[in-house]
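WP5 quarterly update. Target: ABC transporter substrate-binding protein. Source organism: Halarcobacter mediterraneus. Length: 356 aa.
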Amino acid sequence: MNMFGKTTKLLVAAALIAGLSSEAMAKKVYKWKLATTWGPTLSPFIDAPKNMAKMVEEMSDGRLIIRVDASNKHKAALGILDMVKGGQYDMGHSASYYWKGKDINTFPFSTMPFGMTMPEQYAWFYYGGGMELMKKVYKKHKVLSFPGGSSGNQMGGWFRKEINTVDDLKGLKMRIPGFAGEVMAKLGLTVTNIAPGELYTSLERGTIDALEWVGPGMDINMGFHKIAPYYYTGWHEPGLDLQFLVNERAYKKLPKDLQAILITAMRASAYDMYIQNYHMSSEAWQKMEKEYPNIKVKTFPKPVMDAMKKANAELRKEMVKGQPLLKEIFDSQEAYQKKVRKWTEMSDYIYLKDNL
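Structure tokens (predicted):
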């Protein structure tokens, strides 16, 4: 082939590329992977990332496809932050309080004992400065964190015996993780963390005396109501929020419209998880109440609650020493809760109190 022929072919190829470049760019497909802390059947937790991925694919017309891997696939349920940070996964779905050992500033973004309810906490995130603080915390990890779905107010746990005094707690063996576990340990409980698959057997055999899980919607399949007749109302996780983690470098490589689609889908699926869990709990409790009428729904007596609040306050005070960012987060949450709680009381509490 002579030089003229080569040049002609190159010019034709260049023209074709130039003509198709905008269309090719528009059709470029981004394939991401997301790792979750949850097993493949743990609804509604596993449903939030799956629904998000489905929305993203549909809204982007197939330009962004996210594969969701449950914990049984990647085998690192509590390694989500490290995998997203390191780039093994582009995204993750987990809970911020799991990273307390790596970064103490992360855990308040999940929930705090005696803290905000789900509507209050989401208002704080999006309108009260919470997102800005979360961005500041996760910046050094080179990941972005977004609210990932709330369980709402969790129940205080299943107990084999009734709790009437603080002394009744002393010596009890209980599965209760996180900051709430530290509060209970301060009151004399022996706190343990047992794998979910072993909880029923441990409670049945008396290896533990009590445990907390989530609420009726997720508790019913675990079968705890068949063993422990006392079901206590919540105090420790009033608005547990899960989280989406996004690798910052991968996010910046997305076109602006796909970034907007991703953020929108995360926000929509997070709310959907909350209402799905609310529905699941209402149906599950109706079934539990009918089939196991011996279940007694209890509230911890005021002296016990007062002791929990005192232990909680003391632990928080100790924890912020030498931790200015953690103190900033605590202060922001406390100030917002104080402000928003007046409206919560007027709009929800009084209405429910007067109409139940």
